[in-house]
Automatic annotation (TrEMBL):
Gene3D superfamilies: N-terminal domain of ligase-like. InterPro entries: AMP-binding (IPR020459), AMP-binding_CS (IPR020845), AMP-dep_synth/lig_dom (IPR000873), ANL_N_sf (IPR042099). Residues 1-20 form the signal peptide. GO terms for biological process: acetyl-CoA biosynthetic process. The lineage of its organism: Eukaryota, Viridiplantae, Streptophyta, Embryophyta, Tracheophyta. This is acetate--CoA ligase.
Length: 201
């Protein structure tokens, strides 16, 4: 739950790329299941995060998931990794040349704006998987038009949002790995032009 997560989600939406956010608390096996199912070209992660005082090595989890996916015939071309210096320095991160790319080295080379890729209302926006607690995780495909109207409307009325408000959302109540984080950290507030404070810790 770093700022780069909703930034990446919104960037995907702008260029018409389907994204699938996976909760950072999942194991490498759970992540591999989702990679095998949706067959992404790129995985975006950060090297590590802190949960309280504990460091979670996300890049290690992603590496294990990518190795498992490759055994099942699904190979991912690029792993774009954000260096989260608060949790782990770059030098302490395991690295695979040719596949791994640092966010900080790659993203700033490109313009901060781009033309919008216009899509149809029924074109896919994102794929979000069920937890898998009742069997194999199922990917739920959310389409652009219906989801945008839903998230904009429910944000506006459920939170009684007014243009003068500053909206604060605790990551624990709306992690971007779940639908609430998609709707009430990222898309709903942005569609209403809301000023948002996101707690990363």
């Amino acid at each position: 739950m770093l700022m780069e997560l909703p930034i990446a989600m919104l960037a995907c939406a702008r260029i018409g790329a389907v994204h699938s956010v996976v909760f950072a608390g999942y194991s490498s096996e759970s992540l591999a299941q989702r990679i095998i199912d949706c067959k992404p070209k790129v995985v975006i992660t950060c090297n590590a995060v802190k949960r309280g005082a504990k460091v979670i090595h996300l890049k290690d989890i992603v590496d294990a998931a990518l190795a498992e996916s490759a055994k099942n015939g699904i190979s991912v071309d690029v792993c774009l990794t954000y260096e989260n210096q608060i949790a782990l320095k770059r030098e302490g991160t395991k690295w695979k040349e040719g596949k791994d790319v640092w966010w900080q080295d790659f993203v700033p080379k490109y313009p901060t704006t781009c033309e919008v890729e216009w899509v149809d209302a029924e074109d896919p926006l994102f794929l979000l998987y069920t937890s898998g607690s009742t069997g194999k995780p199922k990917g739920v495909l959310h389409t652009t038009g219906g989801y945008m109207v839903y998230s904009a409307t429910t944000f506006k009325y459920a939170f009684d949002y007014k243009p003068s408000d500053v909206y604060w959302c605790n990551r624990c109540t709306a992690d971007c790995g779940w639908i609430t984080g998609h709707s009430y950290v990222t898309y709903g507030p942005m569609l209403n032009g809301a000023s948002v404070v996101v707690f990363e810790g």
